[in-house]
Automatic annotation (TrEMBL), chains A, B:
Residues 19-78 form the HTH tetR-type domain. It comes from the Bacteria. This is TetR family transcriptional regulator. Pfam families: TetR_C_43 (PF21597), TetR_N (PF00440). Residues 41-60 bind DNA. PROSITE patterns: HTH_TETR_2. Gene3D superfamilies: Tetracycline Repressor, domain 2. PANTHER family: HTH-TYPE TRANSCRIPTIONAL REGULATOR BETI, HTH-TYPE TRANSCRIPTIONAL REGULATOR RUTR. Keywords: DNA-binding, Transcription, Transcription regulation. It comes from Jiangella anatolica. GO terms for molecular function: DNA-binding transcription factor activity; transcription cis-regulatory region binding. The keyword Amino-acid biosynthesis does not apply. Transmembrane segments: none annotated.
Length: 216, 216
DNA sequence: CGGGAAACGGGGAAAAGATCTCCGTTTCAC
DNA sequence: GTGAAACGGAGATCTTTTCCCCGTTTCCCG
């Protein structure tokens, strides 16, 4: 359901202005979601993209479809960052550090807020992308742990949740420039992740499964 | 403006059920703000408090008044935590640590999100409470810094923003139980705050003033 | 170039959602 | 027991968002 508009587009060559507008809308949507949350008015997204609202509705059947596309885009880009960090950084902890900061720039925090009510988490694309991301980040952490630089009592969930939270837009209205603080705080968090551990943590390492209580 | 409902109440003895409902509403509002943000429907707050919506409107002239009361309450309680940590903990870093975790339990994160558009930041009560909080936390940090346990390149703003962000409800719908992770992540962050610093931070220490660009 | 199909934008109707009031009923205090 | 105050729920009103309609513009291809 709802995937029609996309399918139709791919069937025909499509006009250049149409595809350009589509990209613009996606970019605008990403920004708008980051700034105002997942229920930002679609008209606002259209306005930000510099197109009429009818154009948005022409490209995306409903909010759901738009959200899915944006989420897939972002997931893919973050996974790329994880992969390239794995491939290019010789030092294990440095690779992890690089990934964290790059992921922050992609605004994972905002992405996570897209997992709203009507979101189909079992969409093939999304599931695939998430699995790939999980695999890459797990390797980043395993490497760092094995090299003795990452404290052993933290899980992938600890890292992902912290990134998510620290990269979200600040609550207060005006100060939307989290960027100023984001990287500082991520860096402090990363310093806390280093081995040897400077304190004992409550509870147990957070895993990916912890986020899906309703798993088969 | 808007303080009438409260004033009137205090003038007369007031009925016990009325004051009880008032407390219930404030508590419900705090929870609702924490969970759904500052623009949660007032009817939803009334429902959560187990009272009719009319009762809410009878006690609070408008959303603004309710927000102010909730904010003042929370600020006061957090300040208490800072003061008691200062008074009771002999070790400077331990005092800081204790304050951070207690503040988290009070959900500072949610409180911060109350600083929405219509909020009067210059309200005497609020300003006073904020100044007192700032003073207390500054002392906590100064003590820890002077004892050589806190890295010198972090400011009060760094700490407050991080607490705020890490204690906010998770973006996704279901997983509203941040509590499970919150304290772990705060602890990791605190470990990153310890001296000696394990890395260099970008930018400069964040102060309180950084949040008010429109200061006289 | 020029014709025709597709895409566009803006305005506004329809729907959804939130606010707040009215009023009959219940609860408290004396 | 009685009067005054507080209560709850229903719904009118106002705001916000969605989405459609249709006249105009832009692109593609011959």
């Amino acid at each position: 359901m709802g995937g029609m508009a996309t399918a139709e587009r791919k069937a025909q060559p499509a006009r250049v202005d149409a595809t350009r507008n589509r990209e613009r809308i996606i970019a605008a949507a990403r920004e708008a979601f980051v700034e105002h949350g997942p229920s930002v008015p679609l008209d606002a997204i259209a306005h930000r993209a510099g197109v009429g609202n009818a154009t948005l509705y022409r490209h995306f059947a409903d909010r759901n479809e738009l959200v899915h596309v944006v989420a897939s885009y972002s997931l893919a880009r973050i996974t790329e960052q994880a992969d390239s960090a794995l491939a290019e950084e010789p030092d294990a902890f440095e690779a992890l550090r690089r990934f964290v900061h790059r992921a922050a720039d992609e605004r994972v925090g905002a992405l996570c807020s897209l997992l709203y009510d009507g979101f189909d988490k079992n969409d093939a694309n999304v599931v695939d992308a998430r699995v790939r991301l999980e695999a890459a980040v797990t390797r980043l952490m395993d490497n760092a742990r094995e090299s003795g630089q990452l404290r052993p009592d933290v899980g992938i969930g600890d890292l992902m949740v912290a990134i998510t939270q620290l990269t979200r837009p600040l609550a207060g209205t005006a100060c939307a420039h989290v960027e100023r603080y984001m990287h500082r705080h991520l860096q402090l968090f990363l310093d806390g992740l280093r081995a040897p551990a400077r304190s004992e943590l409550s509870g147990t390492a957070v895993t990916f499964e912890d986020f899906e209580p309703d798993r088969i």
